[in-house]
Design a protein that fits this description.
19 helices, 377 residues, OB fold (Dihydrolipoamide Acetyltransferase, E2P), alpha+beta, five-stranded antiparallel sheet
Length: 377
């Protein structure tokens, strides 16, 4: 089998990456595939829903009695049962588990690479509907998935949230004003809401909420308990949406103050990434002030410089190059970051002269950074 099919629906995929995903969602969420992404794979030649029965421990196989065919192939024909190479015993024979199964066909045999247990008929309907969504209609798709974020079936709720995690910052900002603020308030208040969701829900509420919500978000920021610290980036983003001046002032002060906890300062840095992706022109001046604050403080200088490189901000080129080897900025990591920035300033005479000088004194450093940049591309 090309990948490990688990009854829980979790899957290990190596080498998958999704660019321009939500800046406030962790790497694990961005790497996990959604149902739609699985369906888009060339290997998803057959997609069916069926109940597990006749599990055989000796052969480690289970029969899947097909109840719904979402995507067919000639090899499926009118089959009512297919055998999967996985032992899936049914705790209750009278009410066997029902699975959404993605299959390839290898040497004439069905080769399922993912199976997700579905808890009820509504989950089956969800699976049907997502295959009919227009991939280009991001706004309406996110509105559709929003309605399933609190679904009773945890696999469906997880898949719907993954769609938000995979959406770009600009797509999330575009749909946020059309969401149900009442639902978002309820989810924020629920203690069982996971931190990664709390972050996104705070951001969304900031875009569609009221001044009273701004006070709620500010209280969460000021409280800075374990729950809010782990979601600080999204809470801060939501607060900036509702109270731009106060929010940006807070972001700058956090990034400038080396006494603040590192977790909070790193969260504030991620918030910059969201606004750069969602509203690059509108937020440019404030984002730049925050990046300047990070460089001036020193401890987060490498992150700020790297962001300026990736975001094609060149208005600070001379200042950044002047940091190379300067006391407080002479660590190897900072040096590599400055060289990486300079190498990306194509056509800038000052940057090209800087690179030439560094090549003369430390050719190995420059060559190593050039190799990193080629790998990045």
């Amino acid at each position: 089998m090309k990948a490990l099919w688990l009854a829980s629906g979790s899957i290990l995929l190596v080498g998958l990456s999704y660019s321009q995903a939500c800046s406030l969602c962790g790497a694990k969420l961005q790497q996990a595939p959604t149902f739609r992404q699985e369906a888009a794979l060339d290997t998803a030649r057959v997609i069916v829903i069926g109940t597990a029965e006749n599990a055989q421990l000796t052969t480690r196989t289970t029969d899947l009695r097909i109840t719904d065919v979402l995507r067919s192939a000639p090899e499926l024909k009118d089959k009512k049962v297919i055998t999967v190479k996985r032992y899936l015993p049914a705790p209750d024979a009278k009410n066997p588990p029902r699975y959404l199964v993605f299959c390839d066909i290898f040497r004439g045999e069905f080769d399922p690479f993912r199976g997700v247990e579905l808890k009820n008929a509504e989950a089956v309907e969800y699976a049907r509907r997502i295959l009919k969504l227009d991939a280009k209609d991001t706004t309406n798709n996110l509105l559709f998935f929003f309605h399933y974020l609190d679904h009773a079936d945890p696999e469906i709720a997880r898949d719907a949230f993954l769609e938000f995690a995979k959406a770009s910052d600009s797509d999330i900002a575009g749909v946020a004003k059309r969401l149900d603020a009442t639902k978002l308030r309820r989810w924020l208040a629920a203690r069982e809401t996971p931190p990664e969701r709390l972050s996104v829900y705070s951001l969304l509420l900031g875009a569609c909420g009221t001044d009273a919500d701004a006070r709620t978000l500010r209280d969460m920021l000021d409280r800075a308990d374990e729950r809010s610290v782990n979601s600080y980036d999204g809470i801060l983003a939501g607060y900036i949406h509702l109270r731009p001046r106060e929010g940006w002032d807070l972001a700058q002060s956090l990034l400038r103050d080396g006494r603040k906890p590192m977790l909070i300062r790193l969260a504030a840095a991620r918030t910059l990434g969201y606004f750069h992706g969602a509203r690059p022109k509108e937020s440019y001046d404030n984002v730049l002030k925050c990046l300047d604050a990070m460089i001036a403080e020193g401890e987060l200088a490498d992150i700020a410089i790297e962001n300026m490189r990736r975001w094609n901000i060149r208005s600070r080129t001379r200042d950044i190059l002047a940091l190379y080897g300067k006391k407080g900025f002479d660590a190897p990591l900072i040096k590599r970051t400055v060289v990486r920035y300079a190498l990306c300033c194509k056509g800038d005479a000052t940057a090209e002269a800087f690179v030439q000088a560094r090549r003369g004194e430390d050719a190995e450093l420059v060559t190593g950074v050039e190799e990193e940049l080629r790998s990045e591309k």
